[in-house]
Design brief:
Blueprint (H helix, E strand, L loop, with lengths): L3 E4 L2 E3 L5 E7 L9 E6 L6 E6 L5 E3 L7 E6 L4 E6 L8 E11 L2 E4 L7 E5 L2
Parallel strand pairs: 2-11
Antiparallel strand pairs: 1-3, 3-8, 4-5, 4-9, 5-6, 7-8, 9-10, 9-11
């Protein structure tokens, strides 16, 4: 089973910045469409940003212009640069890759512990 470890979260003031990292095990990382997800208590996990194997990106409307997803395939690492953070960004952030096998959506990695981001004064 391939795994991911998220890191880089913390407590920041509104307007502050963080850089999250996702370290992935296995040899398939460079081929995967990776994503950052976040979850708050009582709500579904939501996709924040994704990046294709070729570097194409997509973002949730709520984070456009503030968060930037990137990858370093040589290091099997996914990043999320978070700037101008807002209180509504507070959540546990996870990384994973969603794929499809015979029409069935699957998560490539076992879910990690996630990393807590708290934006507060």
């Amino acid at each position: 089973q391939v795994q991911v470890v998220e890191s880089g979260g913390g407590l920041v003031q509104p307007g502050g910045s963080l850089r999250l990292s996702c370290s992935a095990s296995g040899s398939i990382f460079s081929l995967l469409h990776m994503g950052w997800y976040r979850q708050v208590p009582g709500k579904e996990r939501e996709l924040v940003a994704s990046i294709t194997s070729g570097g194409g990106t997509n973002y949730a409307d709520s984070v456009k212009g503030r968060l930037t997803i990137a990858r370093d395939n040589a290091k099997n690492t996914l990043y999320l640069q978070m700037n101008n953070l807002k209180p509504e960004d507070t959540a546990v952030y996870y990384c994973n890759a969603k794929a499809e096998r015979n029409g069935v959506p699957i998560w490539i990695f076992a879910w990690g512990q996630g990393t807590q981001v708290t934006v507060s004064s």
